[in-house]
Specification:
Layout (H helix, E strand, L loop, with lengths): L5 E6 L3 H16 L3 E2 L8 E6 L4 H14 L11 E6 H6 L1 H6 L5 E4 L6 H8 L21 E5 L1 E2 L10 H5 L3 E2 L2 H13 L4 E5 L16 H11 L4 E4 L9 H9 L6 E3 L7 H6 L6 H14 L4 E8 L6 H14 L3 E6 L17 H24 L5 E12 L2 E8 L10 E4 L11 E10 L2 E9 L1
Parallel strand pairs: 1-2, 1-3, 3-4, 4-5, 6-9, 9-10, 11-12, 12-13, 16-18
Antiparallel strand pairs: 7-8, 14-15, 14-17, 15-16, 17-18
């Protein structure tokens, strides 16, 4: 091969997979490989898969089957490497069934990607790399950083512990090295993620807390926003809330997955709590972090869920007044404990309940967004969009997480009026669904 081998990526699933892709890309670039966006220009495509739900597995298979059998730009067979959660969940059985794929790389094996690609491309000599070890490749305005992997909760509906293994925290030094590289390359917001971010540090040789991690990073990188996602209710301590309230660069935003609030349903999910205790927690969060925006995740149609229990969830949503919510219908996942549970509702009923729940959440969320009109906020400029009305800067407040919570649309005369990666003060002048309109008041 008289050129640098070219690799394309297709990333499916959650933000944690995006981080894994980013790290694989960094290793490949440092080793001398080239990255391309179009699979038809690549010698090999890496499909980083999700296997959390059966629907995600089906999507992954569709993508893989669409790629296998194609030719690359040189007229040779395009090779497909299947990475991530599908190989982890199904192991050797996947390799036996998916013979069309050139190879497999399980989640947690991302550091082996260079050797695996060299093997699949039958390379006698590795490409001429820079020798520089990069931690991350992509450097957008905002970036995700994993602070842990795996999970010890074993919720009855979930396959994550079987796919990603037991919970383990990454060290402060490893996290800090990654954050430092990203900030040095222009990232202005770091989103800290994991399966269970609220218990970070408990398993380290010298136990520590998520609050101490966030405080350390907020102090070291005072001009960078830090946002925390996926904090289970048990991990929301007063110490963590006080750090969120004390540091202006720690986003007043909390992602708190609940799934349900009925005590019996939660017990069958192998989770704890009830509506009363969760409402008390939400009240405590709002008292200690004024102006905090709260996102949650809810599930409808769990096996055995009665209409009364579902109605309790709807009543709770009305009382809790979440700013944002992700809603899912229960999906029976083979291998999970809940797959064997009695009382499975038919798919139509599960989907109907999920839609009713989503409608309720969206009615509340969009009303709460509308209440922001007339206030001022600091925004981070992410990009631009040409509209019928003219050019708009696309921005986010601390109360809007990347990709899921909407943006602030600010009219500008020129693209250089608000630079990407810049912070600015805006007045929020209008809203439509979860999107917000604003006007520049001052450049920060």
């Amino acid at each position: 091969m008289d050129r640098s081998p070219r690799i394309a990526f297709v990333t499916l699933g959650c933000a944690k997979n995006e981080v894994d892709t980013d790290k694989m890309q960094a290793r490949l670039v440092a080793a001398g490989f080239s990255l391309v966006d179009d699979a038809s220009d690549a010698d090999l495509v890496i499909v980083n898969t999700c296997a959390f739900l059966a629907s995600a597995v089906e999507e992954g298979l569709e993508v893989i089957f669409d790629l296998v059998g194609r030719e690359n730009a040189a007229g040779e067979e395009l090779k497909v490497l299947v990475a991530g959660c599908m190989p982890s969940r199904y192991g050797d059985a996947l390799a036996d069934e998916l013979v069309e794929a050139a190879g497999f790389l399980a989640a947690g094996e991302e550091d082996l990607v260079v050797a695996k690609v060299e093997q699949l491309l039958d390379m006698d000599e590795p490409p001429m790399g820079s020798g520089q070890m990069l931690l991350r490749h992509a450097h957008p305005t905002s970036a995700y950083v994993k602070i842990s992997d795996g999970c010890d909760r074993f919720c009855s509906y979930c396959m994550i512990p079987h796919i990603r293994g037991r919970y383990h925290s990454y060290s402060l030094d490893a996290i800090d090295d990654e954050v430092a590289e990203l900030v040095c390359n222009g990232v202005r917001e770091i989103v800290l993620i994991g399966q269970d971010t609220g218990i970070w540090g408990r398993d380290l040789d010298e136990p520590t807390t998520t609050a101490q991690l966030v405080e350390t990073l907020a102090c070291r990188y005072s001009n960078t926003w830090f946002r925390l996602l996926y904090v289970q209710p048990e991990g929301i301590s007063d110490e963590l809330l006080d750090v969120m309230a004390a540091y202006p660069n720690v986003c007043s935003y909390l992602d708190m997955p609940l799934q349900h609030v009925n005590a019996e349903v939660l017990a069958r999910m192998n989770r704890s709590g009830d509506a009363r205790s969760i409402l008390a927690l939400i009240e405590r969060v709002r008292e200690r972090v004024p102006g905090v925006m709260i996102r949650t995740t809810l599930m409808a149609g769990f096996p055995g869920e009665t209409e009364e229990q579902f109605e309790e969830l709807l009543d709770f949503v009305d009382e809790a007044q979440f700013d944002y919510a992700g809603v899912f219908a229960f999906s029976p996942e083979e291998g999970s404990a809940a797959y064997e549970f009695d009382g499975l509702l038919d798919e139509e009923e599960r989907m109907e309940r999920a839609q009713r729940l989503l409608d309720a959440c969206e009615a509340i969320g969009t009303a709460r967004v509308a209440e922001l009109v007339g206030t001022r906020a600091t925004v981070l400029v992410e990009g631009y969009e040409e509209t019928d009305a003219g050019l708009e800067a696309l921005c986010r407040t601390q109360g809007q997480a990347p990709e899921v919570d909407g943006q602030v649309h600010v009219p500008v005369a020129r693209a250089d009026e608000l630079a990407i990666g810049q912070f600015a003060q805006v007045e929020l002048t209008g809203s439509f669904f979860y999107e917000v309109e604003g006007e520049v008041v001052d450049h920060v």
